[in-house]
Amino acid sequence: MPSSRRALLILSVLSLLALASIGLALMVGSYRVAPADVLAALLGGEAGGAEVVLQLRLPRALAGFACGGLLALAGALMQVLLRNPLADPYVLGISGGAGVGAMFAILIGLPVLGIDGLAFAGALAAMFIVFGLAHGDGSWTQTRLLLTGVIVAAGCGALVALMLSVAEEHKLRGMLFWLMGDLGQSSSPWPPLLALLVALAASMPFARELNLLARGLMQARALGVAVDRLRYAVYLLASLATAASVTTAGSIGFVGLVVPHLVRLATGNDQRLLLPASVLAGGSLLVLADTAARTIIAPQQLPVGVLTALIGVPVFLFLLSRQPR
């Protein structure tokens, strides 16, 4: 099968999986809605449970798909940027910065919009701090960037722990749910969806250069790639994608780490296919995990980050066991 036909087949299967995951999210829950009623509600007709589908489940499913796609895209970009298969969207402290902003907003009693705003501001602050410190005197290596991100993340973790220790008891549950990932507080799916479209559209023109960068800096430079400019662009795109996701749903682990690995096994390492396939697979995984999180012990809900970790840990250990020594 020609590579173009194989790529089309993979993207078609993943697109169907994404539609199926969103459809399942609209049907199941503490109040079950029949497939015919879901379709009628989406088409604007009268149906039982139409308000539940349109006002509660559809925005949450779309937000979940956007956040999963953003995390998977950011993970794939980070793994190329750092040339490290263990890199994930949170490795450079972006999530820690967002956590500091969100915890401070909850601590002082701001509404949801204020929490989102301070979380995004914290993520941007962490991004610029890591970039500035790692850039230093102009030299910028993967090791220096990684170590700077780890240190900034540790500092943010200490600030988050401090705020948790002084927070009032009735605020702790909201803080912990945010830190473990929760799509229940996402006010609108359109900002993360727009961020996903922009990030994917901006990263695809660099796909060929990313293929060369994955082979090594010297080879990429020898083949005419502007490596420094490319690395800055990849870092900025991955950081902004992570910030948009964390602002919407909190810290959700393992999606950006495991999904690019699984997709790479099926598609190979061609970024022209890997990036859009990771977006579809990551979005589908997070929608399915969120559906399970709100149905396992319904009407109570679990943090979706707990389920992604329970899924991601054994999958990642299995992938490691398959790697050659």
Could you walk me through the main structural features you see in this protein, from its secondary elements to its overall organization?
With 325 residues, the chain is mainly α. It has one domain: ABC transporter involved in vitamin B12 uptake, BtuC (Orthogonal Bundle), CATH 1.10.3470.10. It has helices spanning 3-27, 35-42, 50-81, 94-107, 112-135, 142-166, 169-180, 190-203, 207-215, 217-222, 227-249, 255-267, 271-293, 304-322. Helix 13 (271-293) packs across helix 14 (304-322). It starts with a helix and ends with a helix. The model has no long low-confidence stretch (mean pLDDT 87).
SSE diagram, text form:
Elements: H1 3-27, H2 35-42, H3 50-81, H4 94-107, H5 112-135, H6 142-166, H7 169-180, H8 190-203, H9 207-215, H10 217-222, H11 227-249, H12 255-267, H13 271-293, H14 304-322
Helix pairs in contact: 1-3, 1-13, 2-3, 3-8, 3-11, 3-12, 3-13, 4-5, 4-6, 4-7, 4-11, 5-6, 5-11, 8-11, 12-13, 12-14, 13-14
Features:
325 residues, ABC transporter involved in vitamin B12 uptake, BtuC, globular, 14 helices, mainly alpha
CATH superfamily: ABC transporter involved in vitamin B12 uptake, BtuC
In percent terms, what proportion of residues is strand? under 5%
Structure summary, number of beta strands: 0
Total of DSSP H or I helical runs spanning 4+ residues: 14
Rg result: 20 Å
Average pLDDT confidence is: 87
Summing up helix and strand content along with how strands pair, one would put the structural category as mainly alpha
Globally, the shape reads globular
Return the CATH class.
Mainly Alpha
What is the domain tally?
1
The helix fraction, in percent, is: over 70%
The CATH topology is: ABC transporter involved in vitamin B12 uptake, BtuC
State the CATH architecture: Orthogonal Bundle
| N-to-C SSE string, H for helix and E for strand | HHHHHHHHHHHHHH
* Euclidean distance between termini CA atoms: 32 Å
Q: Which stretches of 5+ consecutive residues score pLDDT under 50?
A: none
For the sheet with most strands, the description reads:
none
